[in-house]
Amino acid sequence: MAISVVRFQPKAGLPSTPPQWGVVFDRRIAVLATQATTTGEFVRHALAEARAATRAQATWSLDEVKLLSPVTTNQQFICQGVNYASHVRESGLDPRNFPFNTIFTKASSCITGPTDDVVRPRHVHLLDYEVELGLVLSQDLTQARDVQPDRLHEVLAGLTIVNDVSARDVQLPQGQFYKGKSYRTFGPVGPSLLLLEPHEWALWPSLRMRLSVNGSERQNDLCGSMLFKPHQTLTELSALQDLKAGDLIATGTPAGCAARAPGKLPMFLARHFISDAMKWKIFVRKGMKDPLFLQPNDVMELSIRTDDGRLDLGVQRNKVVSA
Question: The Fumarylacetoacetase-like C-terminal domain covers which part of the protein (predicted)?
């Protein structure tokens, strides 16, 4: 049975109170004894303790705590781009032109909690959202490994919700994925790290991602729609770089983002008759009038779960505020 692990601080404590780890039973938390200060330490040394926790040990109410990101900021934050055909198409591109896995990184300092405010920098006007399934590694991968689709449990500890918040007026005109996606608070993660049993990893394609803004649904798709599956990405990344226990891989987002390409005629005109500089000026000017882009006081709500409720990663809720 999947286990929902949270990292938290008591609301009544001081901000300097060391975070604790616990297992959620309904709306109560069984506090774990582990002193792990990072996600890597937790998945290396405390998984057995988490799996041994019982409902009778759940003495803290979720209402008494502030939930933190279950992925700590020392871990790598690796992302997949254009990994859903629907998102590729809404970006004005053809999925057939992407026979490769698009990889980039976000600064780990952008990681924030599942209920923390997302701060929009003063110079950013086109703030966007992306609900994504997050994979958390259970071990170090320091050499190439051929990960099989039915052996994900050998290298992954669990799953979490990621919001890949993006400043489109930085990312796209400047061609700066890292820069446009790495401002502080641009990476809400959590609320939970869902630890799966080996046989439960076969259910990941049936996880449904949803994202709403102010109660209006914007994104809704199954994780199984992703183009490059987790085993393929883990295999490719392990041949490319070292990965460490606790590192986070965000697996891409489906259609429904605020940023989307104009129609075919405007795309043709922009490609053949307008300079790149003018094209992006028009993009930003038009985007500033688009109500889909996030504004201060907007509230994003994200969930990932199977339709039958067998796997449930919880609900992430963040408000946008001005810097």
Answer: 77-321
